Amino acid sequence: MPDDSQPMPAAQDNEFVLREDQGTIARVTLNRPKAYNALSLEMMRALTRTLEAIGQDTTIRCVIVEGAGKGFCAGHDLRELRSRTDRAFYEEVFETCCQLMSTITHLPQPVIAKVHGIATAAGCQLVATCDLAVAEESARFATPGVNIGLFCSTPMVALSRNVPRKRAMEMLLTGELVSAPVAADWGLVNEAVDAEALEERVTAYAEAVASKSPHVLKIGKRAFYEQLDQSLDEAYRHTAQVMTENMLARDAAEGIDAFLEKRTPEWKGA
User: Fold this and answer.
1) Residue-by-residue DSSP string for 160-226
2) Mean pLDDT along residues 23-41
3) C-alpha angle 143/148/149, rounded to 5°?
4) CA distances from 269 to 85, 155, 168, 204 (A)
5) What residues form DSSP beta bridges with 182?
6) Rounded-to-integer distance, Cα 110 and Cα 132, Å
7) SS3 for 265?
8) Following CA atoms 68, 72, 78, 79 in sequence, which dihedral angle do they give, to the nearest 10 degrees?
9) pLDDT of residue 270
10) Residue 30: enclosing H or E segment and its boundaries?
11) Which DSSP state fits 108?
12) What's the pTM value of the predicted model, to 2 decimals?
């Protein structure tokens, strides 16, 4: 029998994006370490395809996104952005980035960012877009586009939905670096931990998530993002229907029965 605890390399879509499965957890690594994992057009497309493939993989219940080398992600590839000056190219780059972020939000599995070094501009956006995030205490975050004449408008979307409004504007208007402990205090990341503890904490989150019903995780994640922009009354009406849908699922019956019978539930994924 295969040992599910051992990492299983998946078919790689692109040299810049690596996937490795460990049981029910998929690890996705941004792999442009010499460029601080800058998001080139090719890399964003590969990352989107990798995540879409994971979304179709019913054996995977949680995803960890991390960066190779000295940092998590420095944002867009500025050299690539300056390689052309036509509107069509810029539209393609930023629409591809938005599609990537939307893919993460709509992925049925929860996504955890494992952050070290820097996460700036679209890299900070990537962290904010992930469902959970854990960072080394030495990690730093910024939306520094304003410093180079390019306001971080697309990163603003995820940032402003994760941190208080004036904190988001502080980051966007000053472009200054924010430490991981401050980012945790503002809600950009869940925790800031010692470098030695980063892998342990991320794995703990991933294992906790992966132990739950994948069907229920999918329902809950979808409902969470759907209700965010609804009015209070709309959100309650919507989530009441979601709860009804959830109660009719086999895993809800199994989970409640297991709780009442004081045993571990056996999820069916439906």
Assistant:
1) HTTS-HHHHHHHHHH---EEHHHHHHHTSSSEEE-HHHHHHHHHHHHHHHHTS-HHHHHHHHHHHHH
2) 97
3) 95
4) 48, 34, 38, 22
5) none
6) 8
7) coil
8) -10
9) 84
10) strand 25-30
11) S
12) 0.93
